[in-house]
TrEMBL record:
Belongs to the zinc-containing alcohol dehydrogenase family. Quinone oxidoreductase subfamily. Keywords: Mitochondrion, Oxidoreductase, Transit peptide. The lineage of its organism: Eukaryota, Metazoa, Ecdysozoa, Arthropoda, Hexapoda. This is Enoyl reductase (ER) domain-containing protein. GO terms for cellular component: mitochondrion. Residues 35-57 are annotated as: Disordered.
């Protein structure tokens, strides 16, 4: 079975609070808060859970924020005085975060990626640009729910997993408010760590394959026999967060999967169940892939981008990349000129690709919709989807987690453990 072979690089629950300088700062701050109210604070450092309860009673929480764009090491800052988010509609819920992954987009957003569009959307929804909490996917527990949510749907105390749309305040803080369409009960067979590492990357892979790529219909894609028999998909960058989930989704559908990765990751991808794994650092892989014939989809999870589709001699019906230039062009040139650049880029690449190999070049995106979460939920519950977790960092060491993601060459996901 695929999941039995799944690779866990480091499942360390990482150190306890108090082991690092950073944590010393953290403890000092919170001990000061505690001395007037907590007997135990004088003898031992309070647990993060105790701190959470204490802060919450003041309407505050702790978390990691940025106050300006820049480099992660300088901008990501701890605060235990963040105002607790409050429910603003009957369909929202307040979730106590237990674990959350760090995605490349968190690092990119610190660098200012998408600032123009995302900030405009944030402000339109009544938000502010800074301070900004990052973090897009999480597992946790519901602590409050809006009046528009029945107990049949979700209840206070439920263990859940969810995502936060990219323009909203994120979940690298003790509590996060989310709309109910972004929140499902956590599959009981997933740990809080595994559950926190699937949804952002998984919804990206799902939307690339099903919304952009039309691999099957959105909800009916999973049939008892698999919907992908007879189809061939090449996954570039199979060792990363999106790639490791994409190959599992495809294998669960009965698709014939080909994958590229660096030599050190080849065994890991084989262990996920992929038969045809190619070393992209070997120049011969280009011809080897070409000799396979036509792919239904080439899925770029390696950041190769749109132009790459016309640099390689492979045959495909669709080349789908998650590295669209859309937000970058708007950041650089403003909305009108940026969108013009985007249209030119897409038309140019499609004209070239259609004329040489009758294949379409498309952009894929993370799309937070309940159909996608339901799809991932069903796969996870059938034991057909499990994230590869490269490393778990304790909440107090969140900057190290960001640092690891910014170094790239990821083998699966990086997770922050809040407990
Ligand atoms: N548009 C959207 O909404 C979204 C876009 N993305 C983008 O999708 C891409 C994948 O995301 P994610 O999986 O989270 O990123 P990761 O950083 O987790 O994974 C990227 C993987 O690709 C590998 N890689 C790099 N170059 C190549 C290559 N030439 N051939 C094969 N593998 C390669 C890397 O390892 P190594 O370098 O060691 O080979 C790494 O394992 C990223 O570029 C990300 O920015 C992701 C989510 C949403």
């Amino acid at each position: 079975m695929v999941l039995a072979k799944c690779v866990r690089f480091t499942a360390s629950a990482a150190g306890k609070f108090g082991q690092r300088d950073l944590l010393g700062n953290f403890r000092n701050l919170t001990t000061a808060t505690f001395t007037s109210t907590s007997q135990s604070s004088s003898t031992s450092a309070p647990s993060h859970e105790q701190q959470r309860r204490q802060h919450a009673s003041y309407g505050k929480m702790s978390g990691w924020q940025i106050h300006a764009y820049g480099v992660p090491q300088e901008e990501i800052q701890f605060s235990d005085g963040i105002k607790m988010p409050i429910l603003r509609s009957p369909t929202q819920l307040l979730v106590k975060v237990k674990a959350s992954s760090v995605n490349p987009i968190d690092v990119a957003m610190i660098n200012g990626y998408g600032a123009s569009v995302l900030n405009a959307m944030r402000c339109k929804d009544g938000g502010i640009e800074f301070p900004l909490v990052l973090g897009r996917d999480f597992s946790g527990e519901i602590v409050q729910k809006g009046l528009g949510i029945s107990s049949r749907e979700l209840e206070v105390g439920d263990e859940v997993w969810g995502v936060v749309p990219v323009h909203l305040q994120g979940c690298h803080a003790d509590y996060v408010v989310v709309e109910k369409y972004c929140l499902f009960k956590k599959p009981s067979n997933l740990s809080k760590i595994d559950a926190s590492a699937i949804l952002y990357a998984g919804l990206t892979a799902w939307s690339g394959l099903y919304i952009t790529g039309h691999l099957g219909d959105l909800l009916g894609a999973i049939s008892p026999v698999g919907g992908g028999a007879g189809k061939k998909v090449l996954v570039l960058g199979a060792a990363g967060g999106v790639g490791t989930l994409a190959v599992q989704m495809l294998l669960a559908e009965g698709v014939e999967v080909f994958a590229t990765c660096a030599p050190d990751a080849m065994q890991m991808i084989h262990n996920l169940g992929v038969k045809y794994v190619l070393d992209y650092t070997d120049p011969a892989h280009v011809q080897n892939v070409a000799s396979v014939g036509r792919f239904d989809i080439v899925l770029d999870c390696a950041g190769k981008g749109t132009d790459y589709a016309n640099e390689i001699p492979w045959l495909f019906d669709q080349y789908i990349t998650f590295n669209s230039p859309v937000l970058k062009n708007i950041d650089a040139d403003g909305f009108a000129a940026g969108m013009y650049q985007n249209a030119v880029n897409l038309v140019r690449n499609n004209a070239a690709s259609l004329s040489t190999r009758q294949g379409l070049v498309k952009w894929g995106y993370f799309v937070p919709v309940p159909q996608g979460i339901a799809y991932l939920q069903r796969l996870a519950e059938k034991d057909k989807l499990l994230p590869v977790v490269e490393k778990v960092f304790p909440f107090a060491n969140t900057p190290e987690a960001y640092e690891r993601v910014s170094q790239k060459h990821l083998r699966g996901k990086v997770v922050i453990d809040f407990e």
